[in-house]
């Protein structure tokens, strides 16, 4: 129930879990040389429902090998900074339905570049224990500084993100969970093909729209 959601407790929890994300970056689980599978995660909404999708891709062949979706009640309204509590349940459920466990997650949203350093990319990564990267189309939090021709986003005293320019668009890439910033940027650049979004998120967006259309047709 929406009225039972404790917003103050949620923000306190984010501040506490941020510390675990920082610790995870110091000894990252992500082994990019060994990584084969990446899951693109996205969410959409229809008639009070949150639709989470997970699209699994082979990093070597850059092809979709599996995709799943999950539908849950959108338990709380949209609140800036608390998006994860609205979208993560469906996204995580879809992720757990995949036949194979991904080596890394690419999430539509922010990680450390969040007011409390715990955006949806960090949330999903920490909950599942899978290294994660956040990719967003705009800056949510942090200060941009250009160093050596690179646009870094500083947040909470660390280099939390990088602005990657591609195809006339800007992508705000951030540390999610248990990856370094350099690893996150390399993963995103590796998966940038002929679209403005990295391929895992492009495919997740396509699938999300497809599922939403299907549900809209079924719902009276």
Topology:
Layout: H1 7-26, E1 37-46, E2 49-58, E3 63-73, H2 83-97, E4 104-108, H3 120-128, E5 132-136, E6 143-147, E7 150-155, E8 158-166, E9 169-177, H4 181-190, H5 199-218
Helix pairs in contact: 2-3
Key descriptive features of the protein:
220 residues; alpha+beta; archaeoglobus fulgidus dsm 4304 fold; 9-stranded mixed sheet; 5 helices; 9 strands; 34% helix
In short:
GO terms for molecular function: deoxyribonuclease V activity; magnesium ion binding; RNA endonuclease activity producing 5'-phosphomonoesters, hydrolytic mechanism; single-stranded RNA binding. The protein is of the alpha+beta class and 220 residues long. It is built from 5 helices and 9 strands, in the order H-E-E-E-H-E-H-E-E-E-E-E-H-H.
Notes on the protein architecture:
The longest helix has 20 residues, at about 5-25. About 35% of the residues lie in helices and about 30% in strands. A nine-stranded mixed beta sheet has the order 3-2-1-4-5-9-8-7-6, with helices on both faces. The protein has five helices and nine strands. The mean pLDDT is about 95. The protein has one domain (about 1-220): 2-Layer Sandwich (archaeoglobus fulgidus dsm 4304 fold). The protein has helices spanning about 5-25, 85-95, 120-130, 180-190, 200-220; strands spanning about 35-45, 50-60, 65-75, 105-110, 130-135, 145, 150-155, 160-165, 170-175. With about 220 residues, it is of the alpha+beta class. The radius of gyration is 16 Å and the shape is globular. Belongs to the endonuclease V family. Its EC number is 3.1.21.7. InterPro entries: Endonuclease-V. It comes from Thermogladius calderae (strain DSM 22663 / VKM B-2946 / 1633).
């Amino acid at each position: 129930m929406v009225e039972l959601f404790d917003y103050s407790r949620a923000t306190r929890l984010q501040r506490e879990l941020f510390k675990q994300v920082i610790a995870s970056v110091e000894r990252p689980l992500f082994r990019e040389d060994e990584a084969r599978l990446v899951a693109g995660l996205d969410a959409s909404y229809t008639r009070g429902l949150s639709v989470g999708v997970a699209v699994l891709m082979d990093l070597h062949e850059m092809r979709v090998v599996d995709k799943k979706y999950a539908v849950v009640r959108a338990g709380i309204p949209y609140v800036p900074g608390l998006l994860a509590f609205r979208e993560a349940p469906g996204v995580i459920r879809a992720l757990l339905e995949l036949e194979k466990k991904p080596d890394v997650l690419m999430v539509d949203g922010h990680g450390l570049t969040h007011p409390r350093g715990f955006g949806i990319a960090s949330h999903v990564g920490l909950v599942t224990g899978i290294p994660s990267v956040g990719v967003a189309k705009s800056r949510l939090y942090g200060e941009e500084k250009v160093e050596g021709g690179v646009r870094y986003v500083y947040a909470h005293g660390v280099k939390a993100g990088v602005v990657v320019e591609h195809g006339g668009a800007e992508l705000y890439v951030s540390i999610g969970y248990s990856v370094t910033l350099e690893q996150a940027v390399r993963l995103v650049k590796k998966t940038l093909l002929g679209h403005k979004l990295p391929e895992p998120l492009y495919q997740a967006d396509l699938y999300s729209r497809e599922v939403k259309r299907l549900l809209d047709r079924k719902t009276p």
